[in-house]
Amino acid sequence: MTAGVEPQSWERLWSLDPAIIFLNHGSFGACPTAVLRYQAELRAEMEAEPVRFLSRELFDRLDVARGALARFLGADPEDVAFVANATSGVNAVLRSLLLAPGDELLTTNHAYAACRNALDFVAGRAGATIVVADVPFPLASAAEVVEAVLRRVTARTRLALLDHVASPTGLVLPIARLVAELAGRGVETLVDGAHAPGMLPLDLRALGASYYSGNCHKWLCAPKGAGFLYVSPGRRAEIRPLTISHGARATRAGRSRFHLEFDWTGTDDPTAHLAVAKAIDYLGGLLPGGWPALMAQNRELALEARGILCAALGAPAPCPAEMVGALASVPLPDGTTTDIGWRRPDPLQPRLLDGWGIEVPIISWPAPPKRLVRVSAQLYNTRAQYTRLADALTKALVGG
After folding, report:
1. Partners of 230 in the beta sheet?
2. CB neighbours (10 Å) of residue 25?
């Protein structure tokens, strides 16, 4: 446990605005000030001698950071590359695939919109088809997810893009079973694991997915700009970064083409990646039980928050407890507008912020006027904050 910090004072470790009840860690994460200070030290070192830092030392520094991340993920470092975020990793895989007309790309109606856009782009370019499995929400069991996905598999299914934790609903999909079932049908899986690292225990070797892309800036609480792409050993030679740069022709003893290409795509600020190991160590030292205890505590708080909201709204729990991580969504009464989309929130969201000082997403799902409230649970959150949200929602909804 961090010295001098009482459990009720965890929020002091972050630089979040104390005037805001921040219940939206899931959107962009929040990096502790100690990790940000470490990143600032790295930046100062880089700017003091950019050539030494970027030309002579960077690869070795990335290897150290990658090793720490790979251990956390249960992966071989050779199979892990740094990318800016999970969406970048998903794009790198999709745009590396050699698709043919008639190929089918399978996903679900819970897919993250940015990754669905990438699917549409590559499918349109190749003449492939997007097949969407409709996974219900609310739902009674994880078996409904498996049945919905497998029902849409055909002999033409080339790849399945599946979320580990669905962004709009917070559902933790039964990803291990899905990967195994699809593999048994000859279908490879690309997992959008944006929310999973730091929220759920991971063992990517055991999972067996061909590809897994994740964020470090969300539940690992690393600086923004830190993500990773895992590619199984038999597929590494086929996957190229979005930017083709010097690594396409460079050689270096003991360094794979995979790392030569992904580790340098042009001049950039690599300090977010280099701070990942610091974030893993720092967050892992906050509770006596380390990361397992932190994940369990966040999950328990998310379930408690869901219970508070369901009671206030008179709504049943929309999914089994085992399908909840550190995110939880609860359906709301229908909204009054359909003019909702990316960067155009449901009017209820700014109303909660302006009237009650609560930052929480109101998500249009599956489409307006249907909507959800999605809460996040991180160490700095408290039960009292969700109680205040429940009170604010009941008052705000009376006014429409």
Report:
1. 80, 212
2. 26
Q: For residues 308 and 384, what is the distance between their CA atoms, to the nearest angstrom?
A: 10
Distances (CA, A) of 315 to 168, 309, 312: 18, 8, 8
Give the other-Cβ count within 10 Å of 49's Cβ: 12
Task: Fill in the amino acid letter for 35.
Answer: V
Distance, in Å, from the CA atom of 223 to the CA atom of 29, rounded to the nearest integer, reads 9
400 token code pair: 């429409």
- Bridge partners for 134 per DSSP: none
DSSP string, 274-319: HTHHHHHHHHHTSSTTHHHHHHHHHHHHHHHHHHHHHHHHT---SS
Distance, CA of 190 to CA of 175 (rounded, Å):
11
Query: Can you list the domains of the chain with their CATH numbers?
Result: 7-23+289-398 (3.90.1150.10), 38-281 (3.40.640.10)
Q: Enter the DSSP assignment of 248.
A: G
- In DSSP terms, 191 is beta-bridged to 162, 212
Contacts of 125 (CB under 8 A, 6+ apart): none
Q: C-alpha distances in angstroms, 348 versus 4, 111, 273, 326, 345?
A: 39, 23, 36, 23, 8
- The token pair that represents 65 in the structure block: 């950071």
Torsion of the alpha carbons at 178, 294, 213 and 264, rounded to the nearest 10: -160
Map residue 127 onto helix, strand or coil. Answer: coil
Q: Give pLDDT tens digits along the chain (400 positions).
A: 554 445 558 999 999 999 999 999 999 999 999 999 999 999 999 999 999 999 999 999 999 999 999 999 999 999 999 999 999 999 999 999 999 999 999 999 999 999 999 999 999 999 999 999 999 999 999 999 999 999 999 999 999 999 999 999 999 999 999 999 999 999 999 999 999 999 999 999 999 999 999 999 999 999 999 999 999 999 999 999 999 999 889 888 888 999 999 999 999 999 999 999 999 999 999 999 999 999 999 999 999 999 999 999 999 999 999 999 999 999 999 998 777 777 788 899 999 999 999 999 999 999 889 999 999 999 999 999 999 999 999 999 986 5
Q: What is the pTM of this model?
A: 0.96
Q: Is 53 helix (H, G, I), strand (E, B) or coil?
A: helix
Q: Reduce the DSSP state of residue 112 to 3 states and report it.
A: coil
